[in-house]
Amino acid sequence: MKDPVIGLTALRSPDQSSYHHILTGPYVRAVTGAGGYPIVVPSIVDRCDQALDMMDGLLLIGGGDIEAKHLGVENHPKAKFFNPLRDEFELAMIKKAADRKMPMFGICRGMQIMNVALGGSLYQDINDEQGTAFDHMREQTPDKLVHSVSIAPDSCLASILGTTSASVNSVHHQAVRDPAPALRAVAWAPDGVVEGIESCGNGGFMLGVQWHPERIAETMPEQRRLFERFVKAAEGYREKKG
Ligand SMILES: [Mn+2]
Prior knowledge:
Layout: E1 5-9, E2 11-12, E3 21-22, H1 25-33, E4 37-41, H2 48-53, E5 57-60, H3 84-100, E6 104-107, H4 109-117, E7 122-123, H5 126-130, E8 147-151, H6 156-161, E9 165-168, E10 175-176, E11 184-188, E12 194-199, E13 206-209, H7 221-241
Parallel strand pairs: 1-4, 1-5, 5-6, 6-13
Antiparallel strand pairs: 2-3, 7-10, 8-9, 8-11, 11-12, 12-13
Helix pairs in contact: 3-4
C-alpha cells in the first residue's frame, strides 16, 4: 500500500522578494520518517480543492506572523514577517480540510493559523498582551529545549507523548488567546501561554503545538510519535474516503 500523502503548505519568503514556495528539510524528514509521503502545496488560493483532493492529511508549518485583520483588529507594532497570500491560502485550506474532516497538524504558526481559521483568537505579542515576562523568542534557532510545558492528562497530546510534562523547543512571540470552538487548549508553558490545542474525538484529528517537533523528532521518540500518530490518522482518513 502507498504511503498516505501529507500536504505541507509552503513557506514563502517573508519579504516576498522571492517567488519561491519553500519546504524545509526537517519537515520532509519528519513526515517520511513517520511513514507519510510529503508534498509541497504552493499558495494558490483558487486551487484549494484540487490540492485537498490529492491529500490525506494537512500539515501547517511554521513561518511569520499572521495579519491581524483576520482577527478583526489592527496589526500590533511588534508583529512582523507578514505574508498576506500565505495567510489567505492557509485559512481557506484549513476551513475546507475541516469540512472534509481531514486530519490536520499545525506547528508553531501552523497551530496559530489553524486556531484563527476555526474562529479562535491570538495574542499578537505575548509580552505586551498576555503579560508574560518570559521571552519565548530568546533562542533564535528552534533546536534548543527552552521551557517546559504541562499537558492536560486526559488529552490526546498527553497520550501520544506518553507524559503530562515535557521540555520543548518553542520559538515565538505570538500565541493562541482563545481556542476556537472546535479546539481545546491542552498544553501550557509555565507562564500560562498556550502551547498545544487539539480536537481528536469522534474520529477526527486536529492537533497544534507551539514548538517544533520536526527539529527534534530524530533524537526524541516521543516527539516523533506526533508525526506517526498524525500519519496514522491520515491513513484512516484515506481508507474512509475510499
Ligand atoms: Mn513557548
